[in-house]
Amino acid sequence: MDKRGTFGSRLAIVLATAGSAVGLGNIWRFPFMTGQNGGAAFILIYFACVLLLGIPGMVNEFIVGRHAQTNAARAYGSIGGKRWRAIGYLGILTSTIILGFYAVVAGWCLQYLYASIAGQLDGDPAYVVTYFKTFSSDALKPCLWGVGFVLITHLVVAQGVEKGIERASKLLMPLLLMLLLILVVASCLLPNALAGIEFLLKPDFSKVSSGVFLEALGQAFFSLSLGTACLCTYASYFKRDTNLLRSATQIALLDSAIAILAGLMIFPAAFSVGVQPDSGPSLIFITLPNVFREAFGAMPVVGYVISILFYALLVFAALTSTISMHEIGTAFFHEELHLPRRKAAWILTVVCSLIAIFCSLSVGAYSNLQLFGMSLLDFCDFLTAQLMLPAGAFLTSILMGWFANRQLVQGEFTNGGTLRATFFKAWFFSVRYIVPLCIALIFLHQFGLL
Ligand code: PHE
After folding, report:
1. For position 164, what pLDDT does the model report?
2. Given Cys at both, which of 51, 144, 163, 248 links 58, Cβ 3.0 to 4.6 Å?
3. How many angstroms separate the Cα of 257 from the Cα of each of 126, 162, 220?
4. Helix axes 125-136, 141-159, angle to 10 degrees
5. Do 173 and 19 meet the contact criterion of CB atoms below 8 Å apart?
6. How far is ligand 1, taken at its centre, from the CA of residue 322, in Å?
7. CA 297/CA 311 separation, integer angstroms
8. What is the largest CA-CA distance in the chain?
9. What percent of the chain has pLDDT over 90?
10. pLDDT digit string (tens) for 423-444?
C-alpha cells in the first residue's frame, strides 16, 4: 500500500477542511432553511448549535482521525474497539447518500454557469422562475449535469490528497469570500432591501415551531460536515502538531460567516424583487439572476462577468465539499479491500451517480418518485441531515466521552502535552454531557416523545 499523504502546511489543512465545510450547505441550504423557518430566530438557534455542539463535535472527529491515521471505520475501531467501527460505516453511508443528492444541486449550478456564459438568465423575475422550472423538470439535462459533477469529483479524488485537494482549496476559498462580499453589497443596495436585512437580523420567536430545533441542528452539522466521518478522514491527514481546537473553531467561524454572508446576499434581493423567502431549494436559483441584472443594471458587462465568476466559484465550493464526501468512501475501499485508489474511487462514483439520477428525476420529470410524502431528493436530505448526521455525532460523543481511553484523548487534545490543557476540561464535559444530551433532547422533542 502506498504511503498516506499528509496536507502540506498548516494553512492548507485549515483551508482544505474549510473547503469541505463551505459549500452548497452555506450558500444554497442555509438561505432556504432560514427562509422556511422564519429568519433570524432560526439563525440564533443554528449558532447555538454550532458553538455548543458543532465545535466540540468537530474536535471529537479530529481526534479520532488524527490518532488513527487511517480510514473512518478502522479509525473508530482503533479508538473504541471493533464494535465502534459501526460509526465509521454509518459515516461512509451518510456521505455517500449526501454526495448523491448534493451532486444534483451542484449540477444545477453547472447549468447556471453555462447559462450565464450563454446569457440565458437575463429576464424579469417571472422569467427567471420559469427558467428554473423548465430546466429542472427536463428528464435528461439535470441528470447529465449531476452525473457530470460526480465524475469531476472522481477525477480530483483519484489524483490523491496532495495534488488534487490541497491545490484547489488554497486558491478558490479566498476568491469565493471576496466575491460574496461584493454581492452582499450589491444586494443590500437594491430597493426595498431593508426588509430582507430585517428578516435576517430581527428574530421573531413566534415563528419557532417545534421542528425548528432539529432543522437548525441538522443545518449546523451538515454545514460543518459533521457526523459523516468526513472530518475524521481529513484529520487522518493532519500533522501531529495541528492544534485541533483552534482549527475547529476557525473553521466553524469561517463556515458560519459564509452562511450569514450568503443570507445577506439572498434575502435583501429576494425581498426586493418579490421572491418568497420560503421558496425552498429553488431559492438561490430564482433570486440570484435578479441580483446580477438589477444591481448591475447600469453596467451590464460587469453584471455578466460577476455572474459567471459567481457560478464558477459556487461550483468550486461544491466541488471541495463533494471531494471530501467521495474521499471518505474511497479511502475506505482503498485501504480495506486493498483496491488501487482509482478502482476504489470508481465504486463510489457509480453508486453516487445512480443516487443522483433518481434524486434528480424525483424533483423533475418523475415527481412521483416519493418517499414518506417527500421527493427522493428531499427525503435523502432529511434522512442524512436530520437523522444520520446527528446520530453519527451523538455516537461519537458517547464513544469519546465515556468509552475511549481518557489519557489518549487528552494526549491528542493537547498534542502530547505540548499545548496547554486549559480548555480540555470544558470540552470534555461538553462531549460527555452537553452534546449527547442536547442531541437526544432535540430528537425526542421532534418525535413527540417530550
Ligand atoms: N459541509 C458541506 C457543505 O456545507 C456539505 C458536506 C456534508 C460535506 C457532509 C461533507 C460531508 O456544503
Report:
1. 59
2. 248
3. 31, 27, 12
4. 70
5. yes
6. 7
7. 19
8. 64
9. 62
10. 999 999 999 999 999 999 988 8
The answer to whether residues 230 and 20 touch, using CB atoms and an 8 Å cutoff, is yes
Q: Which amino acid is at 146?
A: G
Q: Is 98 in the pocket of ligand 1 (CB under 6 A)?
A: yes
- Ligand 1 neighbour 320 (Cβ under 6 A): no
pLDDT at 237: 82
Span from the CA of 382 to the centroid of ligand 1 (angstroms): 14
pLDDT, residue 410, reads 94
Q: Which domains can be identified in the chain, with CATH numbers?
A: 10-446 (1.10.4160)
Nearest C-alpha neighbor of 392 from the set 77, 26, 60 = 60
Instruction: Tell me if 96 CB under 6 Å of ligand 1.
Output: no
Question: In this structure, which amino acid lies at residue 297?
Answer: G
Q: Which atom of ligand 1 is nearest to the CA of 28?
A: 12
Q: CB of 303 closer than 6 A to ligand 1?
A: no
pTM of the model: 0.93
**Residue 384: CB within 6 Å of ligand 1?**
no
Q: Can you tell me the mean pLDDT for 30-48? A: 94
95 lines ligand 1 (CB under 6 A): yes
Q: What gap in Å lies between CA 56 and CA 61, rounded to an integer?
A: 9
pLDDT value, residue 1: 36
Question: Between β-strands 370-371 and 374-375, what pairing exists: parallel, antiparallel or unpaired?
Answer: antiparallel
